UniProtKB/TrEMBL annotation:
Protein known as: Uncharacterized protein
Lineage, broadest ranks: Bacteria, Pseudomonadati, Pseudomonadota, Gammaproteobacteria, Chromatiales
UniProt xrefs under PANTHER family: LIPL48, SECRETED PROTEIN
Residues covered by region (Disordered): 30-62
Domain of life: Bacteria
Organism: Rheinheimera lutimaris
């Protein structure tokens, strides 16, 4: 899939609305109302005039505000407005139907290591992003960073999603003219007060839990798995996964990094495209997710670690290729899941990751991923993971150098004892397990990967050539007749379904179908 000049957005299109910036070459504006466009501010700086629609806040007797370019419908914000070193400490709103360009990190709330004499404001500032806004960055280290105590309210709609993406998707900001690439910017980080096994029980009790984030240093963790960090709904995150200067190769930022985020936070209708590290990474906490699509992300699509206790329903994952700004074709996709139980030390208060994940479709390739040369795999199980997967469809058509299920010795006993389990699912894999690792044996007993996958007596392992997907490539085929688990019997978070996989074979009109189709077609647009 090529990112050619046709991908770029003209000034006319910008004056309409910029949404859907993921993908290769197609952008379709969804709103034609440009009535909010006004004359640019007279002062030309970060302090704007009365008609300037850019985000602003009061600082002493001054109003600090982005600079508005009315000809391109772009609000620009320098490090004088916000940066990692100068976070927002008051509420700020980014208006709808405008491109908001940040030349530094959009940090909200004070980042604080409580052992260094600082104090976290529990009821901190809120960043509000209105439906239809496009928020862009041009530096691999620049990111959205919601620190502990702060909130983000980014609530889009199906017709007017919110997009966080590379500045190179915008013609007026693309100085080279090559278009966007994975790793153009950092991604979205939310740090919460949830429980992570990276802290001890004593640290949590003393209020001194300060786990340090990967990629770019920030702090998270606490003792409240019901913590509320805000809302992400109908949000797209494209071309993220940047590597900050000085960071070790491979220590990239993730598209959506949820660090100890609590269940009071709402994550619903998310689309992630062409990230260079993980699509969604979860370190502890208990945040839940619904209606998530992750396409053509280089590393793992959903990475679980550090004792995460949340739930997921409706998850579509696809591995594939992108063509970057240099014209190189990159194979994207390592693990559909990387499921780790522990990162630190488990305790009764901070047990191993034990999520419930339902209605999933994972579509892999037979390629090796661009960054590390690891194979495209549907599930990677490690570090005493205790997850349960329900109503799942795995699809791998060819398997000469990849396979569907990978496990480490630290997950073997969980497989043998069914502490990590599969229910009412189907695997249509050319190669289910790595050659030589089909059998699993521990002191607790033995099984095979096939035996583990079908242990419930309902799940099936079929051939990679068997039809499990509909003609559209992402819905479950009507030929699949496995009766799904009624997820309402597991937890009230879940909805009852009459199908397995991410999208029903009979659905062509729901918001979820339209959201999944748009993301899937975008990733396949060649």
């Amino acid at each position: 899939m090529e990112l050619k000049s046709i991908f770029k957005v003209s000034a006319v299109a910008l004056a309409l609305v910029l949404v859907g910036c993921g993908g290769d070459i197609n952008i379709t504006p969804t709103v034609n109302d440009n009535s909010t466009v006004t004359n640019p501010p007279t002062n030309g700086g970060d302090n704007g005039g009365d008609e300037n629609p850019c985000g602003s806040y009061e600082s002493g007797s001054d109003t600090v505000q982005g600079t508005f370019d009315s000809s391109n419908n772009i609000c620009s914000y320098t490090a004088n407005f916000v940066s990692a070193a100068k976070p927002l400490t008051t509420d700020v709103t980014l208006e709808a139907d405008i491109v908001h360009y940040f030349s530094s990190t959009l940090s909200v709330g004070q980042d604080c290591n409580t052992t260094q004499g600082c104090t976290i404001e529990a009821d901190g500032p809120t960043l509000t992003v209105e439906a239809g806004a496009t928020v862009v960055f041009d530096n691999p280290a620049s990111r959205v960073q919601i620190n502990r105590g702060a909130n983000i309210e980014a609530v889009g709609t199906l017709a007017k999603p919110i997009t966080f993406t590379s500045a190179n998707t915008i013609e007026a900001l693309d100085s080279v003219g090559a278009g966007p690439s994975p790793q153009d910017w950092g991604g979205v980080i939310i740090n919460g007060f949830g429980i992570t096994d990276q802290c001890s029980d004593a640290e949590r009790a003393a209020g001194s839990c300060n786990a340090e984030s990967e990629g770019a240093s920030s702090f998270y963790g606490g003792n409240n798995n019901e913590d509320d960090s805000g809302t992400l709904r109908f949000v797209k995150i494209d071309y993220a996964g940047g590597l900050p200067a000085g960071a070790d190769v491979g220590n990239d930022l993730n598209s959506l990094f949820l660090n100890s985020v609590g269940s009071g936070t709402e994550i619903d209708y998310i689309s992630i495209y062409a990230g260079y590290d993980d699509g969604v990474e979860l370190f502890g906490g208990a945040v839940n997710l619904k209606h998530v699509v992750v396409t053509d992300t280089q590393d793992d699509s959903l990475d679980i670690d550090a004792g995460w206790q949340g739930k997921v329903q409706y998850l579509l994952i696809k591995h594939g290729t992108v063509v970057n700004a240099a014209g190189e074709t990159l194979n994207m996709g390592n693990g559909g899941f990387e499921a780790d139980g522990r990162k630190g030390s488990s305790t009764a208060e901070a047990p191993a990751s034990a999520p419930h994940i339902a209605n999933v479709t994972v579509i892999t390739t037979d390629e090796l991923s661009a960054r590390d040369g690891d194979p495209s795999i549907a599930m990677k199980l490690d570090d005493f993971i205790n997850a349960t997967f329900y109503n799942m469809v795995l699809k791998q058509t060819s398997g000469t150098q990849s396979w569907c299920v990978n496990y480490s010795g630290d997950a073997a006993d969980e497989i043998v004892t069914d502490r990590t389990a599969v229910k009412t699912s189907v695997a249509a894999c050319a190669l289910l397990a790595e050659v030589g690792k089909e059998a699993v044996a521990t002191a607790s007993g033995s099984t095979t990967v096939t035996g583990w996958f079908t242990n419930d007596g309902v799940s099936e392992v079929v051939n990679g050539s068997d039809t499990v997907l509909a003609n559209n490539g992402f819905s479950t085929s009507a030929d699949v007749t496995i009766t799904p688990t009624d997820m309402t019997t597991v937890d009230s978070f879940f909805e009852a379904t009459d199908f397995i996989g991410a999208v029903s074979p009979s659905d062509t009109s729901s918001d979820w179908y339209k959201w999944a189709k748009a993301a899937f077609d975008n990733a396949n647009d060649e």
